[in-house]
Design brief:
- The N and C termini lie far apart (67 Å).
- The model has no long low-confidence stretch (mean pLDDT 95).
- The chain folds into two domains: 151 residues, Glutaconate Coenzyme A-transferase; 231 residues, 3-Layer(aba) Sandwich (Glutaconate Coenzyme A-transferase).
- 24% of the residues lie in helices and 23% in strands.
- α5 crosses α6.
- The protein contains 13 helices and 26 strands.
- With 406 residues, it is α/β, with parallel strands linked by helices.
- The strands form eight sheets. The chain has a seven-stranded parallel sheet, covered by helices on one side.
- α2 links the parallel β2 and β3.
């Protein structure tokens, strides 16, 4: 068992996210039976069902979004609205908790180096600003040759495990997802470098690209859909201006099969300071960014942070990639289902109020009903094109709202 010692009140602790979350360390830290003062805590996507029970009234949980079980924390979660590219700096300036870091790594090699495996991401940046590290050394964390590593001597304590990495639950793609994906695929050329958001719609996009050739990947998370296209020869990364021949990402999000194969596939797992850096993305002149939205207004502004009045944050890398794709790359695509809970997702104004991605960073908006090309278009034409791809039952009302507002 790990001994964290006596932690002073307000000690700042961060840990890895998703499949790289060091669950045994987190559970030990937050054990309800353990005497400790209030802590400042940070993590990203968590699937830890014990998390809500371990957060005490005096603790402050901070994150870039209310993802996974973080949503269950309610008012105990404080979301910081930020682009994903800003996270390394927020750690470097100690604006995020970083007295102690908890990581999950592979067993050490003969030189004592532990691979961060499929979990580089913000963790690989945060370690440079963290005085004390504890590690879960998991025998099922793959050793990735092209991923950051930490020497065993860097750890104040370790816990050895042999457990499967947590899998992401997969929701089957809907008919709308497949229709949207087919339209997106038509906007992608052979040889393009892709960034695609995650989820059922992201999986549908990869499935729709089976007839393409020599695609590349530079993204936040690699998924099972990417593996399928690598296996079929669609993704070769042959045309990438940088990291030629390699899929670049911060972490992996998917099945046990994806994690196990990551070491043998042409994957490079890199820190956020590389995957989302403007100076890196600007070199990808064939970059196509595919991101997803909750709502889009009739000027092309994108809302992706609020749902049903609840602020979830998680702007993530949407703006980082969308701006690079539109400005120095090839094109920025935003996709969404035309309706949500019986209402139009395309609106005169964003109902939730927060603009996640500005209209100038959106070249195309795609729904199951069509493609609205916004690049270089004035407001009147943007409104006309967006109404044309809205759900048919809402188009007349949207046109009437535009006329009334004029």
């Amino acid at each position: 068992m790990i001994d964290f010692g006596d932690l002073a009140p307000d000690t700042g602790v961060w840990w890895g996210q998703a499949a790289a979350e060091p669950r045994p360390l987190v559970d030990a830290l937050l054990d309800p039976a353990r005497e400790r003062g209030p802590l400042r805590l940070f993590t990203g996507l968590s699937w830890n069902e014990k998390l809500a029970g371990g957060i005490r009234p005096g603790d402050r949980m901070i994150s870039y979004g209310g993802l996974g079980t973080l949503r269950d924390l309610g008012e105990r979660l404080q979301v910081v609205p930020c682009h994903y590219s800003a996270i390394p700096r927020l750690f470097a300036e100690h604006r995020f908790p970083c007295d102690i870091g908890l990581v999950q790594v592979s067993p050490p090699d003969a030189d004592g180096r532990c691979s961060m495996g499929i979990g580089a991401d913000y963790m690989a940046d945060a370690i440079d600003s963290t005085a004390t590290l504890y590690a879960e050394i998991n025998h099922q964390m793959p050793r990735i040759s092209d991923a950051p590593w930490i020497h065993i001597d860097r750890f104040a304590g370790t816990l050895e495990t042999d457990r499967p990495l947590a899998e992401a639950s997969a929701r089957p793609a809907s008919d709308s997802d497949r229709a949207i994906a087919a339209r997106i695929a038509a906007l992608i050329d052979d040889g393009d470098t892709l960034q695609v958001g995650v989820g059922s719609l992201g999986d549908a996009v990869f499935d729709a690209l089976s007839d393409h050739r020599d695609l590349g990947v530079h993204t936040g998370m690699v998924t099972d859909g990417i593996v399928r296209l690598v296996d079929s020869g669609v993704i070769t990364n042959a045309g990438k201006p940088t990291d030629t021949g390699l899929c670049v990402a911060g972490t992996a999000l998917g099945s046990t099969g994806l994690y196990r194969r990551s070491a043998e596939l042409p994957f490079r797992f890199a820190p956020t300071s590389y995957t989302h850096a403007p100076q890196v993305l600007s070199q990808l002149t064939n970059l196509v960014a595919v991101n997803f939205a909750i709502e889009v207004d009739l000027t092309g502004q994108v809302g992706a942070e609020l749902s049903r009045g609840n602020y979830l944050g998680a702007i993530g890398g949407q703006v980082d990639f969308a701006r690079a794709a539109s400005l120095t790359g090839k094109r920025s695509i935003v996709a969404l289902r035309s309706t949500m809970r019986g209402r139009s997702s395309i609106k005169l104004q964003l109902a939730e109020g927060a603009v996640s991605t500005g209209r100038a960073d959106v070249d195309y908006v795609v729904t199951e009903h069509g493609v609205a090309e916004l690049y270089g278009q004035p407001f009147d034409e943007r409104r006309r094109r967006l109404i044309a791809v809205a759900a048919p039952e809402f188009r007349e009302e949207l046109a009437r709202q535009v006329a009334t507002a004029a």
